[in-house]
Amino acid sequence: MPVITFANAKGGAGKTTAALILATELANQGYRVTILDADPQRWISHWHDVTGRQRNIDVISEVSMASLQGHIRENRDTTDYFIIDLAGARDALVATAIGLSDHVMIPVQGCAMDARGAAHILDLLGQLAEKAGIRIAHSVVLTRMNALVTTRAMTAIKALLSAKGVHVLDTPIAERTAFRDIFDCGGTLATMDPAKVSNLDKARENARLLALEVLRLVPARRRRAGALSRLAA
Predict the structure, then answer these.
(1) Is residue 54 part of a domain?
(2) Would you say residue 231 lies in a domain?
(3) Which pTM was predicted?
(4) Using CA atoms, how far apart are residues 130 and 233, in angstroms rounded to an integer?
(5) 177 SS3 class
(6) So what's the pLDDT on residue 123?
(7) Pick from 156, 111, 104: which is nearest to 125 by CA?
(8) What H or E segment, with its residue span, contains residue 82?
């Protein structure tokens, strides 16, 4: 039951959207997912309230520094992936969550403020490695990318981060109506009506590719039969 944490010290970087897209797509592919909503904004908890019970997804809303490890321990036998959504901050809860993670995803839009927020998380990861000998795998995921952004621009962003030794996911999260509507209307990309949501097919494909890349990067310790092959189909 790997723990994947979404963190950026700046709010508004798209981490909650990225966390929910990944969680719902993993659940859709047969993995049991527990989302730990540690963001005071509680957007994922609100989504869960609007949506109701969803197959393979549990959401825990009351998460504190003291309770975080207990939530993971108590649910590890019924969970294939834990997804932690954090506040846009660098505080004790963020440090605790990162310390418990198997992989940290750092969402970044193409702006300097997001980059500075990401740098705070990278600095924290560096301190854990240097002072405590705890090395945690991490990746940047580019979020809210305009569908018209050129490949050249994408390549430049990735090259800049890679030059600093930062791994960047090959799958960026595009700016899609479906990714906004999921919070307002509830449900998942799989249950949305393509007649009512523009470019839903492209949003679904974006989510599928993101989940496939994450599954290869952070394989489940108890793989659900056939799930990875379905994603790759």
Answers:
(1) yes
(2) no
(3) 0.88
(4) 41
(5) helix
(6) 86
(7) 104
(8) strand 81-86
Which domain range does residue 95 map to? Answer: 3-226
Token digits for 110? 């193409």
Q: For residue 161, what is the DSSP state?
A: H
Split into its structural domains, the chain has a count of 1
pLDDT of residue 122: 86
pLDDT (tens, 9 = 90+) of the chain, 233 residues, equals: 899 999 987 777 789 999 999 999 999 999 999 999 999 889 999 999 988 888 899 999 989 889 999 999 999 999 999 999 998 777 899 989 999 999 999 998 865 566 677 788 888 888 888 888 889 999 999 887 776 665 666 676 677 777 777 888 989 898 899 999 999 888 999 999 999 999 999 999 999 999 999 999 999 875 444 444 444 44
CATH number (domain holding residue 120): 3.40.50.300
Q: Which residue has the tokens 């109701």?
A: 52
Q: Which token pair is 157?
A: 């962003």
Helices 177-185/200-217 angle, 10° precision? 90
Domain presence at residue 25: yes
Q: Is residue 115 part of a domain?
A: yes
Q: Give the whole-angstrom CA distance, residue 126 versus residue 203.
A: 34
Taking the C-alpha atoms of residue 199 and residue 32, their distance in angstroms, rounded to an integer, is 27
Contact 172, 143 (CB under 8 A): yes
DSSP structure class, residue 36: E
Number of residues written out for the chain = 233
Q: Give the separation between CA 77 and CA 72, rounded to whole angstroms.
A: 9
Dist. CA 218–CA 212, nearest whole Å: 10
Nearest to 26, CA basis, from 217, 210, 178, 225: 210
